[in-house]
Amino acid sequence: MKRTYFTTIYFLIYLLFVKIIKISANLQCIDYLDPLNSRNKILVPCPHVRSNNKIEIRDCYKSKSDQNNMFDLMFNCDLDDEKMCNKAKSTFESVGRTLTSKLLLNTRIGLNATFRPLEGNLLGSAGPSRAIPFRDEDGKIRLYVQALAKQFQLQVHPEYSSVDILADFNSNFPFWFEGDPQIQPNQIGFEELVLHELMHGLGFLSGWNNDYIEEDSLFLTPNIDGIIFNVGDNIERNSELVFRGFLESAFDKYMVLISNKTLTTELTSNFDKFLDGQNTKFSSINEFKEKFKASPQFDIAKQMYNICIESNSIGFLLNTSNSKNEVVVLETGINPFQGGSSLSHVDEKLFDNSSEFLMTFEQTPGRTLKDAIAAGGGKNRKEEAIGPKILAILETLGHV
Ligand SMILES: [Zn+2]
């Protein structure tokens, strides 16, 4: 789809709004070490620094390749098959161009992508390398993925990690690449998969989960600020915990209960009253868990779990000029709740055969990107893989 005049206007409005964002006094960021395992993360200091990079705005003086692809790809192929490596690399480049043509990114995004043999049936995954706390205009501190934070072009900002998005894909999986012979029923289209995963790296990601205090719990909370992580996927359970509050992701700011249009961020406000709020010390995470389970907030956490395993119960409230107050139904049909799949996608049943197919949590095997676009009513341009609602969600994430 050609970029329209209206899209440009939205983007200008977006730039005006994003300046409201404030740097949080909280100078700890979260670094994700492994895109295949979101629990593998560490807290890192990210002191304020003054931007010394020239602001990179798309302009006519840039080289054609820069203009067409705002992603700086660092590609690692751990495979003794040059042809296969090249196919994977070309896919990342193609996806970079597709995203660039739709999103009008103003700052380049560093993408570190690996293609290598992985064990099991894993397809692969991508996600942010760093989440950065920013204070929104409603006073709440939320975690912004670095690729989104950079688009705000703040002159003073928490220190950025050297790369914005990490990706790791399994070369053992029978992927289908553009230009290959007819797709087989067991094959997954690699281009659709990469495009989908990079959307998570750009911020299509809820912070509500059921594994911050214990694994596979039957209650949900946003990220708990103060928990110290080990390298690996273990939370440091015995060390002292200075609780600094519950941190939603930028995405969570726009989640609503469909039944009554209440923003879920209001539930987080109730969480924040836990033991009179921030900077409470606990001797261990187990002590935190016990006190939390005895608090009135625990009922809300259980209630949120039950809501998030019932179809059609949570939506994303769009906030762009032409989609104000429209709600996009998010994925809550998975029972038990599945972190990474529940909430961080659009509803599979509603959207799999629509123009919004890209952000459902399951990719249909034996279906090429072309087929999916055609099934959604598109005319076979790759940009049409990002449907209007998906695009509006990304635009809304910038409306701070
Ligand atoms: Zn996904």
Tell me about this structure:
This protein has 400 residues and is α+β, with helices and mostly antiparallel strands. It has two domains: 5-205, no CATH class; 207-343, no CATH class. It is built from eleven helices and 20 strands. The protein has helices spanning 5-18, 64-68, 82-103, 146-150, 190-201, 264-271, 285-293, 296-307, 348-351, 369-375, 388-398, and strands at 22-23, 28-32, 41-45, 48-50, 71-77, 109-116, 124-128, 130-135, 141-145, 156-158, 165-170, 175-176, 188-189, 223-225, 241-243, 245-249, 255-257, 280-282, 314-317, 327-329. A hairpin with an 8-residue loop joins strand 2 (28-32) and strand 3. The longest helix has 22 residues, at 82-103. Residues 1-19 and 55-64 have low confidence and may be disordered. Zinc ion binds at residues 196, 200, 345, 361.
Share of helical residues: 25-40%
Q: Helical stretch count? A: 11
The number of distinct structural domains comes to 2
Number of extended strands:
20
**Residue-averaged pLDDT:** 87
Q: Please tell me how large the radius of gyration is.
A: 21 Å
Low-confidence stretches: 1-19, 55-64
Biggest beta-sheet profile:
7 strands, mixed
Ligands present: zinc ion
Structural class: alpha+beta
Shape: globular
What is the CA-CA span between the terminal residues? 27 Å
Beta-strand residue percentage: 15-25%
